[in-house]
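User: Just a sanity check before I run the rest of the batch. Below are the structure tokens for the first item. I only need the designed sequence back.
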């Protein structure tokens, strides 16, 4: 594979990763109604959950950038995607505010290495004269992810009566354990 082809793969990969980062962020906001109803959260408590993500993200962005410098972007970005995927799934398994705060904090911490890792990949694999363009494409991925995700996720919430598949559990609702003498009813 030629160097030019590899560079295109790096730029395309970071663009798609940036898009997915913002899809995640839009999902929870769009699915606020079903999540707050299922977990019986107030608006303030839901705001805490959003802030828990931001706090984990802010606290871990610099250390994960250091890890990308030390161990390389390939390893760090692979770990970021794995951790972020785990906590995406766990978001649908929470049963209350405390669990939601913990999962959202760890979700943010896991996702924090994405942009530092992408920046390191561009620094390492893209020639200096093309880095501005690569970063511009990368950043536009995040904005396009947010722009397209909002209407798509809102449509999924309306049509499925659930939340976002990235934060939903059983029957599309926020997951919770079935209590004794309770039967799972599948909506028609």
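Assistant: Here's the designed sequence for the first item:
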């Amino acid at each position: 594979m030629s160097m030019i082809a590899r560079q295109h793969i790096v730029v395309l990969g970071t663009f798609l990763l940036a898009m997915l980062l913002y899809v995640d962020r839009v999902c929870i906001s769009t699915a606020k109604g079903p999540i707050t109803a299922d977990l019986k959260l107030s608006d303030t408590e839901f705001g805490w959950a959003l802030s828990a993500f931001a706090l984990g993200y802010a606290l871990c962005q610099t250390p994960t950038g250091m890890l990308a410098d030390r161990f390389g972007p390939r390893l760090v970005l692979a770990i970021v995607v794995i951790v972020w995927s785990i906590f995406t799934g766990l978001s649908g398994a929470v049963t209350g505010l405390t669990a939601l705060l913990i999962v959202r904090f760890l979700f943010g911490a896991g996702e924090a290495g994405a942009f530092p890792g992408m920046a390191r990949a561009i620094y390492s694999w893209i020639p200096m004269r093309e880095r501005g363009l690569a970063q511009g494409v990368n950043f536009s991925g995040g904005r396009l992810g947010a722009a397209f995700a909002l209407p798509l996720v809102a449509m999924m919430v309306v049509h499925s009566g659930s939340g976002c598949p990235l934060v939903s559990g059983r029957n599309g609702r926020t997951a919770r354990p079935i209590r004794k003498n309770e039967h799972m009813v599948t909506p028609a």
